[in-house]
Amino acid sequence: LGAFGIIEWTSSEEDSVNRMANDMVYNDITLFIAAGNSAGRGTIGTPGSAEDAITIGALDKDSSIAAYSSQGPTEENRVKPNIAYVGSDVMSVAHNTGDGYTAFSGTSMATPGAAGVAALMLQANPDLSPFEVRNFMQETAEYRACTYMGDAAGIDGCDDNDAQNIITKNRQNNVYGHGEVRALESVLAAAEKYYVFDSSMQITIENDPTHDNSHTHLTPKDSIEFTTSGGIETIQWRSNHIVDDWTILHSYEKTDTEGHVSAIDIIHQLEHLPGIDLDGNHTISIRGLKSNSSGGHSSSPLVTIDIMLMDTASAFMPESEDTPGFTFLAVSVASVIALFVNQRKLESNSIYEKD
Fold this sequence. Notes:
Elements: H1 11-26, E1 32-34, E2 54-59, E3 83-86, E4 90-93, E5 101-104, H2 107-124, H3 130-140, H4 162-167, H5 183-191, E6 196-197, E7 202-205, E8 216-218, E9 223-229, E10 234-239, E11 247-248, E12 258-262, H6 263-270, E13 280-291, E14 297-299, E15 303-309, H7 324-354
Parallel strand pairs: 1-2, 2-3, 6-14, 8-15
Antiparallel strand pairs: 4-5, 7-9, 9-12, 10-11, 10-13, 13-14, 13-15
């Protein structure tokens, strides 16, 4: 979310907007807010001052703080921003040109870059909460003291000194926050929250997307087909409607190099979730695990497939007369009836012969 520019908020309005921002985070939305372009100490306002939002400062190309980037503390004396990202001379599309590009500067250019890193983190580990995204990005950021690149201590929100830098490496300050975002380190931290990341293990989806927006169409009779490499021992899968709840694919053995997740299993996992339409678009994530030398498990990169479930109602219908199961039952019943009739005829003939 970009900065709003200069807006005259009343105290009540500021509280309301910040509360709504925090509520979004508590409802599992990872919220990035531009710090603003007002420069100088104490210029981060609503909603960048919201406690749980990830507030982004802007850096120049040399990783020093941009002169225009708003700084903390907030009116509530909260240290902000949280982290910083390059926001100066960022190439973007030029409006009303059709295909032109131009360079823009501002915290509103830095914020999408930081949010893009978070998107990669969630792709690597969709079970992350907004607070975990924030913490991983802060912990892996490259620390920037206020005096970095010649910023004067005690000026424009710079509250570091050499002793503090030595004692506390990653002390958040009102200029750079926790420091400059490091994309690769953030994504790896997300991927390795539960397991050691091992890129030598790979899962390849074999289904071809069905012409419609790259979604693979599946009826209850279909499956997601995949192949594996790198010695994967266990396959886990989940719908992205379900957080942190993976299903083990029991049909996959550790010696296998291919497998499938059936549409019927996906339907049965989703059918009891409130507010979910079975027919329609869904995203399925699959990962592989194997034991490692440390006694734990390593995980393959996560793969996802966008699917469109179709005709799901047929998964809950009894077998029709045309199905093999019904035919077998009908033949069996007919055979029993025929035997019964023949037996009665034999008994009748026997009685007549005795008479």
